[in-house]
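Task: sequence design from structure.
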Protein backbone atom coordinates (compact mmCIF):
# COMPACT_ATOMS: atom_id res chain seq x y z
CA UNK A 1 0.00 0.00 0.00
CA UNK A 2 1.42 3.43 -0.89
CA UNK A 3 1.92 5.87 1.99
CA UNK A 4 -0.76 8.55 2.38
CA UNK A 5 0.17 12.14 3.29
CA UNK A 6 -2.13 15.09 3.91
CA UNK A 7 -2.13 18.83 4.35
CA UNK A 8 -5.02 19.96 6.57
CA UNK A 9 -5.40 23.74 6.76
CA UNK A 10 -8.23 25.64 8.44
CA UNK A 11 -9.86 28.26 6.19
CA UNK A 12 -9.78 30.99 8.81
CA UNK A 13 -7.28 33.22 7.04
CA UNK A 14 -4.97 33.35 4.04
CA UNK A 15 -2.07 30.92 3.75
CA UNK A 16 1.44 32.14 4.58
CA UNK A 17 4.96 30.80 4.13
CA UNK A 18 4.54 28.39 7.04
CA UNK A 19 1.60 26.71 5.30
CA UNK A 20 3.51 26.66 2.03
CA UNK A 21 6.37 24.83 3.73
CA UNK A 22 4.08 22.22 5.30
CA UNK A 23 2.07 21.67 2.12
CA UNK A 24 5.15 21.44 -0.13
CA UNK A 25 6.95 19.13 2.31
CA UNK A 26 3.98 16.74 2.42
CA UNK A 27 3.61 16.91 -1.34
CA UNK A 28 7.33 16.30 -1.95
CA UNK A 29 7.42 13.36 0.49
CA UNK A 30 4.38 11.80 -1.17
CA UNK A 31 6.11 12.10 -4.57
CA UNK A 32 9.44 10.76 -3.34
CA UNK A 33 7.83 7.77 -1.69
CA UNK A 34 5.34 6.94 -4.43
CA UNK A 35 2.54 7.91 -2.10
CA UNK A 36 -0.76 9.79 -2.22
CA UNK A 37 -1.32 13.41 -1.22
CA UNK A 38 -4.64 14.56 0.26
CA UNK A 39 -5.90 18.01 1.05
CA UNK A 40 -8.38 18.28 3.92
CA UNK A 41 -10.29 21.41 4.88
CA UNK A 42 -10.56 21.69 8.68
CA UNK A 43 -13.57 23.99 8.88
CA UNK A 44 -15.36 22.91 12.03
CA UNK A 45 -15.30 26.40 13.52
CA UNK A 46 -18.06 28.16 11.61
CA UNK A 47 -17.44 31.43 13.46
CA UNK A 48 -13.91 31.78 12.04
CA UNK A 49 -13.93 29.84 8.74
CA UNK A 50 -15.03 31.60 5.56
CA UNK A 51 -15.67 30.38 1.99
CA UNK A 52 -13.31 32.98 0.51
CA UNK A 53 -10.43 31.60 2.59
CA UNK A 54 -11.22 28.09 1.38
CA UNK A 55 -11.23 29.29 -2.25
CA UNK A 56 -7.91 31.02 -1.62
CA UNK A 57 -6.41 27.78 -0.26
CA UNK A 58 -7.22 25.97 -3.53
CA UNK A 59 -5.89 28.85 -5.57
CA UNK A 60 -2.66 29.31 -3.61
CA UNK A 61 -1.83 25.60 -3.50
CA UNK A 62 -2.48 25.18 -7.23
CA UNK A 63 -0.24 28.18 -7.88
CA UNK A 64 2.51 26.49 -5.85
CA UNK A 65 2.25 23.50 -8.19
CA UNK A 66 0.54 21.21 -5.70
CA UNK A 67 -2.01 18.66 -6.96
CA UNK A 68 -4.37 16.87 -4.59
CA UNK A 69 -6.94 14.12 -4.84
CA UNK A 70 -10.62 14.99 -5.11
CA UNK A 71 -13.14 15.12 -3.61
CA UNK A 72 -11.56 17.12 -0.81
CA UNK A 73 -12.80 16.13 2.63
CA UNK A 74 -14.38 19.11 4.38
CA UNK A 75 -14.85 18.48 8.06
CA UNK A 76 -18.05 20.52 8.33
CA UNK A 77 -19.74 17.86 6.19
CA UNK A 78 -18.90 15.03 8.57
CA UNK A 79 -20.25 16.02 11.97
CA UNK A 80 -22.16 12.71 12.14
CA UNK A 81 -18.89 10.73 12.01
CA UNK A 82 -17.47 12.73 14.93
CA UNK A 83 -20.72 12.34 16.85
CA UNK A 84 -20.53 8.56 16.39
CA UNK A 85 -17.01 8.57 17.87
CA UNK A 86 -18.22 10.59 20.88
CA UNK A 87 -21.02 8.07 21.33
CA UNK A 88 -18.45 5.25 21.43
CA UNK A 89 -16.43 7.09 24.06
CA UNK A 90 -19.61 7.85 26.03
CA UNK A 91 -20.53 4.17 25.97
CA UNK A 92 -17.17 3.54 27.69
CA UNK A 93 -18.17 6.03 30.41
CA UNK A 94 -15.42 8.47 29.39
CA UNK A 95 -17.43 11.57 28.46
CA UNK A 96 -19.23 14.12 30.62
CA UNK A 97 -20.96 17.46 29.97
CA UNK A 98 -19.54 20.66 31.49
CA UNK A 99 -21.73 23.73 31.77
CA UNK A 100 -19.42 26.54 32.91
CA UNK A 101 -19.11 29.68 30.81
CA UNK A 102 -15.69 30.98 29.75
CA UNK A 103 -15.96 33.65 32.43
CA UNK A 104 -16.70 31.07 35.13
CA UNK A 105 -13.77 28.97 34.03
CA UNK A 106 -11.49 32.01 34.11
CA UNK A 107 -12.71 32.82 37.63
CA UNK A 108 -12.10 29.24 38.85
CA UNK A 109 -8.59 29.25 37.35
CA UNK A 110 -7.80 32.61 38.99
CA UNK A 111 -9.00 31.20 42.32
CA UNK A 112 -6.81 28.09 42.00
CA UNK A 113 -3.84 30.14 40.90
CA UNK A 114 -4.23 32.44 43.89
CA UNK A 115 -4.50 29.38 46.12
CA UNK A 116 -1.10 27.96 45.19
CA UNK A 117 -0.99 27.43 41.45
CA UNK A 118 -2.82 25.53 38.77
CA UNK A 119 -1.32 23.42 35.94
CA UNK A 120 -1.27 24.50 32.31
CA UNK A 121 -1.37 22.33 29.21
CA UNK A 122 1.51 22.08 26.69
CA UNK A 123 0.03 25.06 24.81
CA UNK A 124 0.09 27.12 27.99
CA UNK A 125 -3.67 27.15 28.64
CA UNK A 126 -4.88 26.34 32.16
CA UNK A 127 -6.36 22.86 32.57
CA UNK A 128 -10.11 22.62 33.05
CA UNK A 129 -10.73 23.54 36.70
CA UNK A 130 -14.42 22.69 36.97
CA UNK A 131 -16.22 20.01 38.93
CA UNK A 132 -18.74 18.99 36.26
CA UNK A 133 -17.44 15.42 36.33
CA UNK A 134 -18.89 14.90 39.78
CA UNK A 135 -22.36 16.36 39.14
CA UNK A 136 -25.06 13.80 39.85
CA UNK A 137 -26.91 12.31 36.89
CA UNK A 138 -30.10 13.99 38.10
CA UNK A 139 -28.45 17.41 38.32
CA UNK A 140 -26.99 17.01 34.82
CA UNK A 141 -30.31 15.95 33.35
CA UNK A 142 -32.04 18.93 34.95
CA UNK A 143 -29.51 21.38 33.53
CA UNK A 144 -29.76 19.83 30.07
CA UNK A 145 -33.56 19.77 30.37
CA UNK A 146 -33.50 23.50 31.06
CA UNK A 147 -31.54 24.04 27.87
CA UNK A 148 -28.22 24.94 29.54
CA UNK A 149 -25.48 24.89 26.89
CA UNK A 150 -22.67 22.42 27.55
CA UNK A 151 -19.39 21.13 26.17
CA UNK A 152 -18.50 17.44 26.22
CA UNK A 153 -15.21 16.57 27.89
CA UNK A 154 -13.05 13.49 28.06
CA UNK A 155 -12.57 12.11 31.56
CA UNK A 156 -8.79 12.03 31.19
CA UNK A 157 -8.01 10.07 34.35
CA UNK A 158 -10.43 7.29 33.44
CA UNK A 159 -9.34 7.31 29.79
CA UNK A 160 -5.64 7.03 30.69
CA UNK A 161 -6.30 4.31 33.25
CA UNK A 162 -7.81 2.14 30.53
CA UNK A 163 -5.32 2.95 27.80
CA UNK A 164 -1.98 2.03 29.42
CA UNK A 165 1.37 3.44 28.24
CA UNK A 166 1.24 4.93 24.75
CA UNK A 167 4.02 5.95 22.38
CA UNK A 168 4.44 7.27 18.89
CA UNK A 169 7.12 7.02 16.25
CA UNK A 170 8.56 10.46 15.59
CA UNK A 171 10.60 10.95 12.43
CA UNK A 172 10.98 14.67 13.01
CA UNK A 173 11.67 16.47 16.24
CA UNK A 174 9.75 17.81 19.22
CA UNK A 175 10.25 21.21 20.85
CA UNK A 176 13.05 19.84 23.07
CA UNK A 177 14.56 17.60 20.39
CA UNK A 178 12.38 14.56 21.20
CA UNK A 179 12.52 11.92 18.46
CA UNK A 180 12.29 8.17 17.84
CA UNK A 181 9.85 6.48 20.24
CA UNK A 182 8.15 9.29 22.16
CA UNK A 183 6.06 8.53 25.25
CA UNK A 184 2.62 10.14 25.03
CA UNK A 185 1.55 12.29 28.00
CA UNK A 186 -2.17 12.89 27.42
CA UNK A 187 -2.76 13.63 31.11
CA UNK A 188 -0.84 16.89 30.60
CA UNK A 189 -3.93 18.20 28.74
CA UNK A 190 -6.51 17.57 31.47
CA UNK A 191 -10.14 16.88 30.56
CA UNK A 192 -9.97 18.02 26.94
CA UNK A 193 -13.07 19.15 25.07
CA UNK A 194 -14.46 16.64 22.56
CA UNK A 195 -17.39 18.80 21.46
CA UNK A 196 -17.83 22.51 22.08
CA UNK A 197 -20.99 24.35 23.03
CA UNK A 198 -21.19 25.87 19.57
CA UNK A 199 -19.39 23.16 17.54
CA UNK A 200 -20.33 19.48 17.73
CA UNK A 201 -16.69 18.31 17.62
CA UNK A 202 -13.15 19.46 18.39
CA UNK A 203 -9.80 19.66 16.63
CA UNK A 204 -8.41 16.58 18.44
CA UNK A 205 -11.38 14.37 17.71
CA UNK A 206 -11.95 15.30 14.09
CA UNK A 207 -8.28 15.11 13.11
CA UNK A 208 -7.98 11.61 14.56
CA UNK A 209 -11.19 10.35 12.96
CA UNK A 210 -10.34 11.83 9.58
CA UNK A 211 -6.76 10.61 9.46
CA UNK A 212 -8.04 7.10 10.23
CA UNK A 213 -10.98 7.23 7.78
CA UNK A 214 -8.75 8.58 5.02
CA UNK A 215 -6.04 5.97 5.63
CA UNK A 216 -3.38 8.59 6.38
CA UNK A 217 -0.13 6.74 7.15
CA UNK A 218 2.17 9.73 7.68
CA UNK A 219 1.20 12.87 9.57
CA UNK A 220 3.66 15.64 8.69
CA UNK A 221 2.81 18.91 10.46
CA UNK A 222 4.25 21.80 12.44
CA UNK A 223 6.03 21.24 15.74
CA UNK A 224 3.41 23.44 17.44
CA UNK A 225 1.17 20.35 17.29
CA UNK A 226 3.82 17.97 18.65
CA UNK A 227 2.28 17.43 22.11
CA UNK A 228 -1.26 17.27 20.70
CA UNK A 229 -0.12 13.90 19.42
CA UNK A 230 -0.42 12.62 23.00
CA UNK A 231 -4.18 13.19 22.91
CA UNK A 232 -4.38 11.75 19.40
CA UNK A 233 -2.62 8.56 20.48
CA UNK A 234 -5.01 8.23 23.41
CA UNK A 235 -8.02 8.63 21.11
CA UNK A 236 -6.58 5.98 18.76
CA UNK A 237 -6.32 3.58 21.67
CA UNK A 238 -9.86 4.30 22.91
CA UNK A 239 -11.44 4.09 19.46
CA UNK A 240 -9.42 1.13 18.16
CA UNK A 241 -7.72 3.14 15.39
CA UNK A 242 -4.31 2.53 13.88
CA UNK A 243 -1.68 5.16 14.67
CA UNK A 244 0.06 6.85 11.73
CA UNK A 245 3.77 7.70 11.79
CA UNK A 246 4.53 11.31 12.74
CA UNK A 247 7.00 13.86 11.53
CA UNK A 248 6.78 17.28 13.16
CA UNK A 249 8.67 19.98 11.32
CA UNK A 250 10.13 23.31 12.42
CA UNK A 251 7.94 26.38 11.95
CA UNK A 252 8.82 29.14 9.54
CA UNK A 253 9.56 32.18 11.70
CA UNK A 254 9.50 35.85 10.85
CA UNK A 255 12.51 38.17 10.99
CA UNK A 256 12.00 38.68 14.74
CA UNK A 257 11.80 34.94 15.45
CA UNK A 258 8.01 34.89 15.96
CA UNK A 259 5.62 32.27 14.62
CA UNK A 260 3.87 33.56 11.45
CA UNK A 261 0.26 34.55 11.80
CA UNK A 262 -2.48 34.47 9.20
CA UNK A 263 -2.78 38.23 9.50
CA UNK A 264 0.89 39.13 8.94
CA UNK A 265 0.78 40.48 5.42
CA UNK A 266 4.50 40.39 4.66
CA UNK A 267 4.61 36.59 4.62
CA UNK A 268 1.23 35.89 3.01
CA UNK A 269 1.40 33.86 -0.20
CA UNK A 270 -0.97 36.24 -2.00
CA UNK A 271 1.08 39.28 -1.05
CA UNK A 272 4.30 37.60 -2.13
CA UNK A 273 2.70 36.55 -5.41
CA UNK A 274 1.37 40.06 -6.04
CA UNK A 275 4.84 41.41 -5.35
CA UNK A 276 6.19 39.22 -8.15
CA UNK A 277 7.44 36.12 -6.30
CA UNK A 278 7.35 32.84 -8.24
CA UNK A 279 6.56 29.39 -6.81
CA UNK A 280 10.30 28.66 -7.04
CA UNK A 281 10.99 31.76 -4.92
CA UNK A 282 8.56 30.45 -2.30
CA UNK A 283 10.38 27.11 -2.21
CA UNK A 284 13.65 28.95 -1.74
CA UNK A 285 12.21 31.16 0.99
CA UNK A 286 11.12 28.14 3.03
CA UNK A 287 14.33 26.22 2.41
CA UNK A 288 12.94 23.56 0.04
CA UNK A 289 14.93 23.86 -3.15
N1 LIG B 1 -5.91 22.22 10.91
C1 LIG B 1 -4.71 22.31 11.68
C2 LIG B 1 -4.08 23.67 11.48
O1 LIG B 1 -4.40 24.36 10.52
C3 LIG B 1 -3.67 21.26 11.32
C4 LIG B 1 -4.07 19.91 11.76
C5 LIG B 1 -3.02 18.85 11.67
O2 LIG B 1 -2.16 18.90 10.79
O3 LIG B 1 -3.11 17.91 12.45
O4 LIG B 1 -3.24 24.06 12.28
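Answer:
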Amino acid sequence: MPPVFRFAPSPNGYLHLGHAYSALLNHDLARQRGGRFLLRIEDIDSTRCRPEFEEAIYEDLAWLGIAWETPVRRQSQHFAAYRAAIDRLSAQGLVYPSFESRAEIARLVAEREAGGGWPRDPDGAPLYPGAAKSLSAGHRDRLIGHGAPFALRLDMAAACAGAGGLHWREAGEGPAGESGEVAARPEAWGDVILARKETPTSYHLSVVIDDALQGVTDVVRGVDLFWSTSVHRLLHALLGLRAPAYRHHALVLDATGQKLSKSTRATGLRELRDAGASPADIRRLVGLE
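Residues 17-32 form the longest helix (16 residues).
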